[in-house]
Automatic annotation (TrEMBL):
Protein origin, superkingdom: Bacteria
Protein known as: Penicillin-binding protein 2
Positions of transmembrane segments: none
Keyword terms: Membrane
Domain Penicillin-binding protein dimerisation positions: 58-199
Keyword Membrane: yes
SUPFAM superfamilies named among the record's database cross-references: beta-lactamase/transpeptidase-like (SSF56601), Penicillin binding protein dimerisation domain (SSF56519)
Subcellular location(s) of the protein: Membrane
Pfam families: PBP_dimer, Transpeptidase
Similarity field: Belongs to the transpeptidase family.
Domain Penicillin-binding protein transpeptidase, first and last residues per copy: 263-569
Length: 592
């Protein structure tokens, strides 16, 4: 029989156990809340306290490579080394108190200064200044961008308050090769060239590492959180590095030999519009930008325009055949200088009697009068429309930073003189890419392909993207293009400079231009911009070469370009293993 006396102790025991169980449950719930449910929040909160730290994790900027994958620009590892000023003072205090056998900051700072090549007083001042500003400072830069060797020497000091983080930097292994195209990086980011225009492809996404440290600088386990960095993409170009190197040496020699201000060589693939080389002199070495004058750090190929001179006669010939019913054998009579019915006066570069020029002959002798008379077979509006279709005044699809476009005023704005001057490349301007695109259309059976310099961008995850290019344009018929090719081949065969541009074993098509240079709206005296453009093999065009010189002094006509053109075309045909011609060209009559 249970009595009141025996029930009371039992009840008290049950109540006590219930209270203990409730307390335990409360502790368990709280522990689960702290360590599981809200663990991230608590860790994040701890990171904000005195011993919370964070470090950037740098991704590598993407490489720029040529058409074969050879590196033109890449990233190398440098290191940003930092100090923990508060930890330095704490360790020094422990040394003084006899609680540590570590080396003092005075000793370590002398070694660190020698490694990073700074005065020891400057290194010590870094810590002093940081603590003056914030007595609990946990961060100050010792030195940024130290080398791998310096990083290793600092690591050998084995002190907990020096930490070095990887910091990718830019390197250009071939120096000035394609420097005018690749561009360069400044302290605030990309400044020129493809480094600038393709920054979205190349830029990495940096990550972050956060953690908490104890008083001794040791990372507290379980407090580390990391957002990984993502490297930039690989930018592949259409150019061939070896060809680019050769042509840069070649144009440098030609500029110096002809005492020109500058020069350039551009190579395009006829069927695709891909730019295989774009060499110029002077150019820039992205590894040492300040060694180059500021005006030589960008690309004149894309940023300069000029009057094309007689190279436009090739375009006019194509236009009058396509729209004016002319043929390579059509004729006009032309003397050395003539005044037209509207009062415009045109003269040739040499005096001659009245010739019965064929259209082919007008281009062989580069007769301004002759091509002006042929231009009368097509209206000014039609010629303007054709020039636009050829891409003159339209720029290029490359989209190079600061790229210039030529200037062709609407036909309605042409005065009596401009009506004829535009037929032989005066009264308007163009650029090397525009001219290459126009002649590329002639070489490509009348189809103008958009020029391209970028092949693709391959992201870190392997995703490949390619540039969006405009559709090709059928400028003239295939028949007209074939006839124009034949005329330009006869220029290479019969012009005075024929022997200078001959490439043994290959059929070549070519045209020259000597454009007057203007300054403040007035033509400069005896100053010319010379051009030579052509393609090969003439019977089945594969590659096009343009050579320009700005104000050559030794030879002031486009003959100054002949040596460089011949050597450039020869090297292009070798580089791409183009088979020699097996057919014989047809010699077209110069006079009717």
């Amino acid at each position: 029989m249970t009595t009141q006396a025996t029930r009371s102790p039992r009840r008290r025991t049950v109540v006590a156990l219930a209270v203990v169980l409730a307390v335990l449950i409360a502790f368990i719930v709280r522990l689960v809340d702290i360590q599981v449910v809200n663990a991230d929040d608590h860790i994040a909160d701890s990171m904000d306290r005195a011993f919370g730290s964070s470090q950037p994790l740098y991704g590598s900027r993407g490489s720029i490579v040529d058409s074969e994958g050879e590196t033109l620009a890449g990233s190398i590892l440098l290191y940003d080394c930092q100090l923990d000023p508060l930890l330095i003072t704490q360790i020094d205090e422990d040394i003084v108190a006899g609680e540590s056998t570590a080396r003092s900051w005075d000793e370590v700072s002398a070694d660190a200064a020698a490694i990073v090549e700074l005065p020891v007083d400057d290194v010590r001042a870094i810590v002093t200044d940081a603590l003056t500003e914030n007595a609990e400072s946990r961060f100050a830069y010792l030195k940024q961008s130290v080398t791998t060797e310096q990083f290793r020497d600092l690591a050998d000091l084995a002190v907990p308050y020096i930490a070095c983080l990887q910091h990718p930097a830019r390197s250009y292994p071939d120096g000035a090769v394609a420097g005018n195209l690749v561009g360069f990086i400044g302290t605030d980011g990309p400044l020129e060239g493809l480094e600038l225009s393709q920054n979205d492809c190349l830029t990495p996404t940096d990550g972050t590492r956060t953690f908490s440290q104890g008083k001794d600088g040791v990372v507290i386990p379980g407090t580390e959180r990391e957002i990984s960095a993502v490297d930039g993409g690989t930018l592949q170009l259409t150019i061939d590095r070896d060809l680019q190197w050769y042509l840069q040496q070649l144009i440098g020699e030609q500029v110096i030999d002809m005492r020109a201000q500058s020069g350039a060589i551009m190579v395009t693939e006829v069927a695709t519009g891909k730019i295989r080389a774009a060499a110029e002199y002077p150019t820039v070495d992205p590894n040492d930008v300040t060694a180059t004058d500021s005006e030589d750090r960008a690309s004149r190929i894309f940023r300069s325009w000029f009057e094309p001179g007689s190279t436009f006669k090739g375009l006019t010939a194509a236009i009058v055949m396509d729209a004016g019913g002319q043929t390579p054998a059509s004729t006009v009579t032309a003397s050395g200088q003539e005044t037209f019915a509207n009062g415009a006066s045109v003269r040739d570069s040499f005096q001659h009697e009245t010739f019965n020029y064929t259209l082919t002959g007008a281009l062989i002798d580069s007769s301004n009068v002759g091509i002006s008379k042929f231009s009368e077979t097509v209206s000014a509006e039609t010629r303007y429309d054709y020039l636009t279709d050829f891409g003159i005044g339209e720029g290029s699809a490359v989209g190079f930073p600061g790229e210039q476009s030529g200037l062709v005023r609407p036909a309605a704005d042409w005065d009596n003189q401009t009506l004829y001057n535009t037929a032989f490349g005066q009264g308007l301007t163009t650029t090397m890419p525009e001219l290459a695109g126009a002649y590329g259309a002639i070489a490509n059976d009348g189809v103008r392909m958009p020029l391209s310099l970028v092949e693709s961008c391959t992201a870190a995850d392997g995703t490949v993207s390619t540039p969006e290019l405009p559709d090709p344009v059928q400028v003239v018929s295939e028949e007209t293009a074939t006839q124009t090719q034949a005329i330009l081949e006869n220029v290479a065969m019969q012009a005075l400079y024929a022997d200078d541009v001959e490439v043994p074993g290959y059929r070549i098509a070519v045209k020259t231009g000597t454009g007057e240079k203007s300054e403040n709206g007035v033509y400069k005296l005896d100053a010319y911009y010379t051009t030579m453009i052509g393609f090969a093999p003439a019977d089945d065009p594969e590659y096009l070469v343009v050579v320009t010189l700005d104000e050559p002094q030794k030879v002031k006509s486009s003959a100054a370009n002949a040596t460089a053109f011949q050597k450039a075309m020869t090297q292009v045909l070798k580089t791409f293993r183009v088979m020699p011609s097996t057919s014989t060209p047809e010699e077209l009559p110069k006079f009717g």
